[in-house]
Write a structure and sequence with these properties.
Elements lengths: L1 H9 L6 E4 L3 H41 L2 H7 L6 E20 L2 E12 L5 E9 L17 E8 L18 E3 L4 H5 L9 E4 L19 H26 E4 L9
Parallel strand pairs: 2-6, 4-7
Antiparallel strand pairs: 1-8, 2-3, 2-5, 3-4, 5-7
Length: 253
């Protein structure tokens, strides 16, 4: 056996073994980057926790506070709300909205709560007629209803030019500003309500995109940062072990 091993060494077949070698530049790089990756992961976990607490607070407020009380506390995008009242006669058709490549409108109707300021309700998407000269005809509940949804900003997308609203009702608009709604109501909320789904009273296609920065998104980012930190640690350890043996004896001169 000893003779065979010596023959393998003589023939250059000695695989050698790996031994830890300190690399100052590699350690400096990893030592600076690893704490940063860990800090980013912890920060995302903190943000996720804050979002969860905020969502729980909003859910509690939606069930325990009245609409006027919610308004007095200050409305925020993403906040869930539920209020009773009836739809008004004023509706705006938000132009240039598509679903699955089909042109249409988002129907926004002024809603009169049982108490508190009026609020615009985004009832969802409706397909546009084939002719641009025609506006869609849609039903609106006449009786008192309870609507549920989440608050959102007024739809003021960037447009090159706004030709102004069409005359009469409903009105076709490129954007809807709070000031335009305020001209039709005594008081109006600073946010609009996006209905929670197509099963809501007066809803059309209400398939809104979910909140991209909810708690789950932050948790996903945290996993990514921690995964990068783990990968950096593993690669640093692997790179720090160098192969030693007959072919590496020249390292010592």
């Amino acid at each position: 056996m000893g003779f065979a091993k010596e023959c393998d060494k003589a023939g250059g077949k000695d695989p050698g073994h790996r031994r830890w070698r300190f690399n100052p530049r590699l350690m400096l790089f990893s030592g600076c980057l690893l704490p940063l990756l860990l800090a980013l992961g912890l920060w995302q976990l903190q943000r996720a926790g804050e979002k969860e607490v905020l969502l729980q607070q909003w859910q509690l407020q939606a069930t325990e506070l009245t609409w006027p009380e919610l308004v007095s506390l200050g409305l925020a995008s993403g906040q869930p709300v539920a209020l009773s009242g009836h739809y008004g006669e004023r509706s705006w058709l938000l132009d240039n909205r598509t679903r699955d490549g089909v042109a249409g409108y988002e129907i926004l109707t002024l809603f009169e709560p049982a108490e508190g300021p009026s609020v615009v309700v985004n009832r969802g998407w409706l397909r546009a007629p084939a002719s641009r000269e025609r506006l869609p005809v849609f039903p609106t509940p006449a009786s008192e209803v309870i609507v549920q949804g989440r608050l959102a900003d007024y739809p003021v997308p960037p447009v090159l030019a706004d030709a102004g609203p069409s005359p009469g009702w409903p009105r076709r608009v490129q954007a809807l500003h709070q000031s335009a709604v305020a001209a039709e109501a005594d008081t109006v909320a600073s946010k609009v309500i996006r209905l929670a789904g197509g099963d809501q009273p007066g809803a059309f296609r209400a398939d809104w995109q979910p909140d991209r920065m909810g708690p789950q998104t932050h948790y996903g980012y945290a996993v990514q940062w921690f995964s990068l930190a783990l990968a950096l640690l593993v690669l640093t350890i692997i790179a720090s072990y160098r192969k030693t043996g007959a072919d590496n004896d020249n390292d010592n001169g």
